[in-house]
Amino acid sequence: MTEQTLSIIKPDAVERNLEDKIKSFYEKKNLKIFKHKKIQITKDEAAEFYRIHQTKAFYENLCNYLSSGPIIVMVLEGENAVIKNREIIGATDPSKANIGTLRQMYGISIDKNSVHGSDSLENAKTEIEFFFNK
Ligand code: CMP
User: Which of 33, 60, 82, 102 has its CA 20 to 30 A from that of 74?
Assistant: First the structure.
């Protein structure tokens, strides 16, 4: 089934000029970049985006980090895009991510893990709406 999902190139990867490499990696894996934009969000917006993590110890740090510099938000489209994107980015902790995944190749740490990907079709819809339909 053709789906859409959200991907974010996080501040650590934007800072290292990895935007083009990450975008072409997605295209090579048959995920089309349907929409994209470079933005910087506020800490409050990051807190809203990551509200499902609000009870976690790392929440404050996470919100500070996502709002610390420019990010690229992208709507990816393709066959089973949600699960495919999750496979392409790899495990949250880059040191545990499979070889050839974006986080294994570019991630620095669990915080600076270079990319975000929606974890379900339902969350993909909410996250796309958050960045593109406001
Ligand atoms: P992401 O997939 O964007 O979703 C939430 C983020 O929280 C995650 O990537 C990590 O960058 C960050 N994070 C920091 N510490 C942890 C942790 N212990 N477990 C899960 N996510 C964490």
Answer: 60
Residues 90, 101, 116, 131: which is the catalytic one? 116
Kindly report the CATH number that applies to the domain delimited by 2-39+73-132: 3.30.70.141
Tens of pLDDT along 66-76? Answer: 999 999 999 99
pLDDT-based confidence at residue 40 (cuts at 50, 70, 90): very high
Ligand 1 probe mutation, 87, 92, 111, most atoms within 8 A of CB: 92
String of DSSP letters for the chain = -EEEEEEEE-HHHHHTT-HHHHHHHHHHTT-EEEEEEEE---HHHHHHHTGGGTTSTTHHHHHHHHTSS-EEEEEEEEETHHHHHHHHH--SSGGGSPTTSHHHHH--SSSS-SEEE-SSHHHHHHHHHHHH--
Domain segments of the chain as ranges: 2-39+73-132
pLDDT band at 133 (very low <50, low <70, confident <90, very high): confident
pTM for the model: 0.97
